[in-house]
Amino acid sequence: MNKRKKILLSSLTIALTPSIVVSCFNNSSEQNKKSLDSIKKELEDLLSTKENVLNLYSDNKYRKIYKDLEKAYLKLEIDIDNIDASLESLEKAKKEISISLEKAKKEKNEIDKNSTLDTELVISRNELKAIIDNRDSIFSNYQDNKYKSILDLLTIKFNEALNVFNNLNSTKTDLDNAKSSLLAAIDQAKKEKNEIDNNSASIPLNKSIKISNWNVCNLGGLSDFNRDVKLKAITSLINYLDIDIQGLIEVELGSLDSIQEMVRVLNIMNPQAKWNYIFSDPSDGINKIIPSDSNVHEACVILYKESKVNPKNFESLNKPFVSFDNSSFKNVFNAPDNVGYVRPPFGVYFETVGQIRNDFTLVIDHFDQPGNHQYDGGTAKKTPSGNKIKSQGRQESNEAWNLKLLMNFYDDLDKENDELIFMADTNIRKGNETALFEPILNNGYQSILNESLALTSLGTSWNYSESYDKIFYKGDLTFSTERDGYYPLYNIIEDNVIKDFDANEVWINYVKSFGKNYSNDASYIRSAIADHCSVFFTLNLDKNDLD
Hints:
The chain has helices spanning 3-48, 50-55, 63-81, 87-133, 135-139, 148-166, 172-199, 224-240, 256-269, 282-285, 394-401, 403-413, 433-436, 438-441, 504-512, 523-526, and strands spanning 208-219, 245-251, 275-279, 299-305, 309-311, 321-323, 346-352, 359-366, 379-382, 388-393, 420-425, 446-447, 457-458, 464-465, 469-474, 479-480, 486-487, 534-540. The protein has 547 residues and is of the alpha+beta class.
């Protein structure tokens, strides 16, 4: 190629190159503009739904979400109107508004979920409150004293429900459980009332009163074991023996709920009886000299049939019961601490119901433990009158010797009444009765139980030992005894006293189902029920006895 042609070709190439570049640039610019227009259109479409979207969050409970979305939409408007906006910035704006919308949905769902739970909680609270508010109306059906045990149980259940209702931290489940428990208690109360009403009948003429005392071996509060084992046996025997007044000793101070349950069950067993109870007042029923946390403190309880007797006020006290104040107690055996009765005796003044109206005072107690222990300071050797004593601690010896002074205290309170009864687990060993109870026996009282026959303390080998349990009586009314004045507790299964238990093996397996495993079979009676026999006698009423 000659030189001229080369120059011409080179010039042509240079002239054509800018045109190609401009053409490529224009194509890219058009595509970019289309992308910008497209995303702007998407963003404008999103912006056009602003009012509809915000309306979804107009409720005050979504206020924060609403405010956050308003800010997000405002920023979107600014991004769309920005004439210098790039494709990248618009894509970022699209991503941001999408995130804001998704976040708003999630927060709304969470609020709705919690709102539903709150609504259900309010409904549960209102349902429970409606039942609680109807308390007075429900209670009005159980004002008769024969329903007292039912009313006591209902009161406990209503108080439990009220505690749940008043607890601001109670959950829906807590409230619903309280409601179910309360409704079940109300339904059970109706059934028990119907059973009592259906079994009610006219009360026959009362000619005698059967009075019992029983050391029930550390009766505590209403656990499953106490309710379904211990109380089942105790109430069954009281009903089986047809007792009219039942003293209970070795009862823990905090066991009122067990006593109320006992009365409730007894009234189901025999609705005509109209069982009630008196629980000794801890304010004057425990020894103030002995430390308050001492395990010697116990309550005394007297169960009684209102169909047979009613408490009668001691005139000077304006109440029918009182614990002995130890004011006249004499430390004749020189115990190191003159504490008086470690467990102050508890007395109740009764009057019989019906055509024959006799009155009498019943005193029950549980003496200090036998032998040389905390309050004894050694054993007593001789009484003040010179009679020998064998293996007896000074404290319980003092308590036995002071029985005359104790009963004089109650004799002064009940004025003209001549009938006085003392029943107790005295812990006075066989052979020491005549010596240690000399003052009371010389003061017109009779010992109803035969010391040699009435061995009322349960041994560990299906046997009986010691005649700790005593009954002393003074009065014009006659009395009688049966079974030598006590029930041999080891016979309770053999005699079919407890419903559905006709063999010791059945009873033992039943007790074991409550996690109790004793070292020998006898303990399934002795430890599960009581380690003493119930003692009792019958007081024969007399219409001619006016004192």
